[in-house]
Amino acid sequence: MEQKVNEATKQPERLVAEAPKKKSKVFIIVLILMVVAGGWFGTSKYLYGLHHEDTDDAQIEANISPVIPRVSGFVKEVRVKDNQLVKKGDTLFILDDRDLTLKLQQAEAALATAESNLGAAQASTNASKATIASTQAGISTVDAQIEAAKVNVWRTTQDFDRYANLIKDHSITQQQYEQAVAAKQTAERQLQILVEQKNQVSQQTKTVSSQSNATSSQIGVASAVIKQRQVDVADAQLNLSYTVVIAPATGLVSKINIQEGQLIQPGQSVFSIVLSNDIWVIANFKETQFEKMRIGQKVTVKVDAYSNHSFDATLTSFSPATGSRFALLPPDNASGNFVKVVQRLPVKIEFTNPTDSLLKQLKPGMNVAVDVHL
After folding, report:
1. How many Å apart are CA 126 and CA 123, to the nearest integer?
2. Where are the alpha helices (DSSP H) in 52-168?
3. Which CATH class is domain 98-241?
4. Taking the CB of residue 184, how many other CB atoms lie within 10 A of it?
5. Where in the chain is the domain with CATH 2.40.30.170?
6. Do 283 and 100 meet the contact criterion of CB atoms below 8 Å apart?
7. Strands (E), the chain
8. If we measure between CA atoms, which residue out of 70, 77, 106 comes closest to residue 92?
9. Hey, which of 232, 339, 351, 359 has its CA 20 to 30 A from 58?
10. Distance CA 185, CA 187 (A)
């Protein structure tokens, strides 16, 4: 009887031990949620990738104008400070102009000398012209006298011929015949003297004319010299004006790298001005991202400095070549071992909301992230 009771009390214990354990539902729920979340995340990323292309390899860009002096000299005065706002035409710094002032005075003195030489040549030419006019008038007078002398020679020759026939018949006296001979010889001598005088005047006219031509050539040379000296004066004035260096555009001055008394050379970049009239974004997209990108597509720009603010922009242009093509040492895949590297192509993105107050706070070089809406 006791044995049956013991067996009866042990049977429920065996039943309890042999019953299967219940599985936890929490694990299954978590697994299902993870699968759903992963699927949703993957699907959303896939759908997002179909309509967007983004990159964080992008920076703010702006026009930066270098300040470069055109003449050498010692810095006399610096009128701007680091990070100062300047307007177009404002004086940035002034160079010592004493050397260039002396060169301008030398050029002006050379111009005055050339003008004096031209005046002297013109006066000489006028005198030569007056002399030529006088000699030509003298030649005209001598020509008239020669014509009268020729008539006198003809008349005295006719008288001589008649007296020569009459002397043979003793119709005239010897004295009359001798007077006819003397008259004829005198007329011929006067004609010879007038011809010689004309020749002298003509030779003098030729000499004066040659001198006048030479003087005219001197006038041409003097005029050319004057033009050259005028160019020298203009060049000296221009160089003197370059001693005052002005701002080429409105913007912010970078760090000033010059001090008073410092010698600077032409073409030396002393500092820069960041132009404040326009800024844009240059984004470097992978070449595998360009299949659906087009000019005019909407772009959302987020600047690291203002991560909670989005800027509206648009894609305006593509670079004509990848960035590596513009490198100082572009890669040459024909030499050495070839390793394929995904290239990046710069894209220009311009802001479309000029009324955004934060645009004025953006500085060139800031990192941004861009999202192109395909």
Report:
1. 5
2. 98-168
3. mainly alpha
4. 20
5. 54-96+250-373
6. no
7. 52-67, 73-78, 85-86, 91-95, 244-246, 251-253, 263-264, 271-286, 298-303, 306-318, 344-351, 367-373
8. 77
9. 339
10. 5
* Three-state DSSP state, 319: coil
Alpha-carbon dihedral 24, 27, 33, 34, rounded to 10 degrees: -170
- Give the integer Cα–Cα distance in Å for 340 and 328: 20
DSSP secondary structure string, 235-252? HHHHHHHTTEEE-SSSEE
Instruction: Pick one of 3.40.50.300, 3.40.50.720, 2.40.30.170, 3.50.50.60 as the CATH number of 54-96+250-373.
Output: 2.40.30.170
In DSSP terms, which residues pair with 275 in a beta bridge? Answer: 251
Q: Which residues of 235-250 are buried (b: 16+ CB within 10 A; e: fewer)?
A: ebeebbebbebebbee
Q: How many other C-beta atoms can be found within 10 angstroms of the C-beta atom of residue 257?
A: 14
Residue 227 is encoded by which pair of tokens? 């033009």
- At 138-191, the pLDDT tens digits run 666 767 777 777 777 777 777 777 767 776 776 666 777 677 777 777 777 777
99, burial (CB in 10 Å: exposed 0-12, middle 13-18, buried 19+): middle
Distance (Å, whole) CA 237 – CA 105: 10
> What tokens were used for 166?
């009459």
**CB within 8 Å of 335: residues ≥ 6 apart:** none
Please give the single-letter amino acid code of residue 349. Answer: I
Q: Are 61 and 364 in contact (CB under 8 A)?
A: yes
Q: Which two tokens stand for residue 265?
A: 């050379």
Q: What number of residues does the chain have?
A: 374
pLDDT digits over 14-66, tens only? 544 454 555 567 878 888 888 888 887 787 677 666 788 889 999 999 999 99
